[in-house]
């Protein structure tokens, strides 16, 4: 069997198929397959030769864990605890009574979940196929024989929970069932499944503001480059009055209403460079700044539902930072980390706000704790990564200057057991681009930096211009800079590592997903002198076509893409977009590429990778291409992630000379999960 045959068998689409290849393989063929798939191989890069590198961690430990748990949530009445884990080989949400060993599993693959306000139901958000048409499922935890019920069983419809309703099981749900471009507001009864339309979107409402009693208190309407917070008219039924206006390019995220709905807590950058926690008065739009920092935006803030006052504000200049406004709460959270860097987040509270759950996150995983009303904190569980944290590398914040003098921030993860001298390096590029890399390991990076470091690579993450978290001016420096100064920032990061002797300039790879995948394609085509190879996951190759085929519910937000990238309907701007599209830069110098894509991706359609692969093959350039069935823009199914990691491991070992653990026996059983 040649390499091409092996790739065909272990493509994501074959692995995920339950009725596929595995039952037809004979024992002899299986033995041959294991041999041909390869065993662990040592590094070939000279900087790694003879180094005392740590034990190779199996790929499966990075992509799935039957013991790892997370997303712990205490019920509002404080009597139960729910969390995400696995039952056997399948994902599930577990529930137990506080203080008792009566845990029960409700199998489901969910993006997330929450309790209803009366603690009788769990409501889970489910994207079964990765096409982002998420459904809301509910289960009655009081019923012994309860099963999940789809509350939004509509084809090609996306729904999400806006609010739970105090004193009831009802959910306030936004759904685009009537019109795929916009979201109406429904009140949904989990017991009967009945929907009541609370508000119909006139075509320009981007958000509904609902209080904890289920009352619609405000909405955000958009027109052109302006957003307006509107309140229900006091004298005209069904009418709305303008309350506060801001630029669409300001950052304003509404958090919680005051009990009387006369003000709202918000993260806002109106009139300032950095986002701050403010109290926004609805009568005249006046803001009172409660907390701000000079160096970075505030990430988020937690507001008490009981007192309607802020509890914690979070930011991340390098290591995580938190401002806790209550002294007693500060002491409880500080006790979880003992002075070490960590992001400590309250993830749920009961109605009294005395019993809560919290997560302590570092670059090496997440631990979940119960903070009871009385007594010390109790460890509830750990993420899969945290369970192997003792074998993982350290990440540290770094700062450098771009070629035009702009300060850049990021993170460097170095492999253990080797001197950081001329190491093979992977530039790991975050998506968005309106996002950022964080010190804590999590969904944004898929913990890829730890996997790559274990294989012997130095891993560099740069928050290039356009990244969030560093203020309005920093983000707006990305306008018109796709494949321009945004990419220069990444190259400058590589040069920084080379100049310090950390990286081998001849063995640098660029890896990314979504916008990061676009960056990887740009690296392989625009700057092949910098990169030895590239890995693109769900990456954009044709900018204009990508925007033309954006999901219908992007319509109200497409103005931001037009501002930063261009409007493909305008010929002059389309020409610029084509000039910045890797598809049209494929040539004889293009570097070897590994391209992977979820077939159900609606943000960056599979066509984007297919076109790029076709162009590469026509040009005679080396490319490997794998697709993931049953997944979209972000893989949910761990067999697909297993394939993604394994293909990355093989590809980079050939390109950069790092270690390769070879075939993972979980690949044989992937069909069963």
UniProtKB/TrEMBL annotation:
Coiled coil: none annotated. Pfam families: Peptidase_S9. The keyword Transferase does not apply. It comes from the Bacteria. Its EC number is 3.4.-.-. The keyword Hydrolase applies. One of its GO terms (molecular function) is hydrolase activity. Keywords: Hydrolase. Residues 446-658 form the Peptidase S9 prolyl oligopeptidase catalytic domain. This is Alpha/beta hydrolase family protein. It comes from Hydrogenophaga atypica.
């Amino acid at each position: 069997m040649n390499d091409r045959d092996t790739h065909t068998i272990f493509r994501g689409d074959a692995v995920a198929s339950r009725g596929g290849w595995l039952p037809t393989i004979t024992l002899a063929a299986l033995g041959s397959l294991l041999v041909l798939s390869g065993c662990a191989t040592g590094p070939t890069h000279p900087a790694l030769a003879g180094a005392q590198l740590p034990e190779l961690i199996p790929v499966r430990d990075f992509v799935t864990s039957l013991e790892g748990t997370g997303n712990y949530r205490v019920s509002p009445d404080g009597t139960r605890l729910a969390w995400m884990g696995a039952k056997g080989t399948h994902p599930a949400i577990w529930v137990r009574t506080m203080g008792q060993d009566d845990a029960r599993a409700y199998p489901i693959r969910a993006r997330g979940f929450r309790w209803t306000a009366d603690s009788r139901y769990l409501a889970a958000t489910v994207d079964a196929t990765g096409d982002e048409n998420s459904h809301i499922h509910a289960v009655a935890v009081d019923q012994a024989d309860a099963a999940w019920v789809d509350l939004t069983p509509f084809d090609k419809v996306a729904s999400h929970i806006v609010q739970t309703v105090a004193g009831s099981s009802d959910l306030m749900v936004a759904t685009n069932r009537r019109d795929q471009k916009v979201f109406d507001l429904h009140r949904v009864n989990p017991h009967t499944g009945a929907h009541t339309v609370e508000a119909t979107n006139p075509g320009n409402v981007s958000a509904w503001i609902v209080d904890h009693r289920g009352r619609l208190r405000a909405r955000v309407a958009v027109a052109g480059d302006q957003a307006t917070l509107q309140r229900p008219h006091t004298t005209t039924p069904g009418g709305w009055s303008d309350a506060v206006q801001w630029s669409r390019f300001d950052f304003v995220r509404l958090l919680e209403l005051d009990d009387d709905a006369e003000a709202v807590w918000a993260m806002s950058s109106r009139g300032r460079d950095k986002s701050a926690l403010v109290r926004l008065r609805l009568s005249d739009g006046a803001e009172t700044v409660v907390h701000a920092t000079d160096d970075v935006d505030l990430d988020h803030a937690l507001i008490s539902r009981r007192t309607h006052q802020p509890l914690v504000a979070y930011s991340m200049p390098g290591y995580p930072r938190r401002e806790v406004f209550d002294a007693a709460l500060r002491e409880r959270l500080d006790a979880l980390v003992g002075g070490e860097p960590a992001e400590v987040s309250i993830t749920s509270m009961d109605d009294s706000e005395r019993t809560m759950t919290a997560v302590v996150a570092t670059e090496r995983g997440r631990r979940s704790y119960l903070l009871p009303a009385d007594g010390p904190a109790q460890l509830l569980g750990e993420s899969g990564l945290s369970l192997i944290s003792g074998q993982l590398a350290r990440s540290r914040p770094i700062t450098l200057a771009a070629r035009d003098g702009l300060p850049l921030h990021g993170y460097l993860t170095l492999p253990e057991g080797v001197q950081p001298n001329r190491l093979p390096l992977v530039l790991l590029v975050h998506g968005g681009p309106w996002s950022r890399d964080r010190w804590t390991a999590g969904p944004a990076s898929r913990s890829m930096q730890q996997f790559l470091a274990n294989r012997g690579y130095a891993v560099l993450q740069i928050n290039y211009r356009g990244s969030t978290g560093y203020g309005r001016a920093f983000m707006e420096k990305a306008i018109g800079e796709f494949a321009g100064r945004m990419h220069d920032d990444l190259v400058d990061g590589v040069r920084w590592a080379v100049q310090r002797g950390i990286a081998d300039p001849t063995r640098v790879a660029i890896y990314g997903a979504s916008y990061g995948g676009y960056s990887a394609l740009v690296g392989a085509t625009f700057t092949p002198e910098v990169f030895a190879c590239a890995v693109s996951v769900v990456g954009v190759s044709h900018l204009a076509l990508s925007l033309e085929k954006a999901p219908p519910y992007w319509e109200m937000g497409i103005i931001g893409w037009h501002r930063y990238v261009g409007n493909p309907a305008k010929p002059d701007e389309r020409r610029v977009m084509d000039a910045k599209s890797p598809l049209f830069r494929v040539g004889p110098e293009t570097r070897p590429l590994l391209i992977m894509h979820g077939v159900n991706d609606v943000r960056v359609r599979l066509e984007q990778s297919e076109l790029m692969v076709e162009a590469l093959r026509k040009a005679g350039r080396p490319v490997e291409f794998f697709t993931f069935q049953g997944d979209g823009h972000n893989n949910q199914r761990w067999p697909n992630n297993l394939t993604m990691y394994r293909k990355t491991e093989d590809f980079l070992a050939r390109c950069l000379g790092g270690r390769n653990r070879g075939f993972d026996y979980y690949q044989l059983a992937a069909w069963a999960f």
